[in-house]
Design a protein that fits this description.
The protein has 83 residues and is α+β, with helices and mostly antiparallel strands. It has one domain (2-65). The protein contains three helices and four strands. A four-stranded antiparallel beta sheet has the order 2-3-1-4, with no helix packed on it. It is globular.
């Protein structure tokens, strides 16, 4: 799950609420504009993470989105935030 958008900085600044919602001590990866969490296995886990993020006031697709699929090991992906 990638997390960006206008609300993520305020969610992080509220303390550990974002990290607690994702049940981690730190994001999988982070940059100035993007945070990445995962992997989360199964639809049920993804639905739970989406519910937790929306409870924090984040908006699906504007602030976070799911990146789901089966990919060969030679395939890599990159995400950027043009803000």
């Amino acid at each position: 799950m990638l997390y960006a958008g206008t609300h993520w900085r305020s969610a992080v600044s509220r303390g550990d609420s974002l990290l607690a919602a994702m049940e981690v001590q730190a994001p999988l990866d982070a940059s100035e504009l993007l945070l990445s969490f995962g992997p989360h296995f199964g639809r049920e886990a993804l639905d739970e993470m989406t519910t937790r993020l929306t409870r924090l006031g984040l908006v699906f697709f504007d602030d976070f989105f799911e990146f789901v699929g089966d990919y060969p090991t030679w395939c890599t992906f990159r995400a950027e935030c043009p803000i």
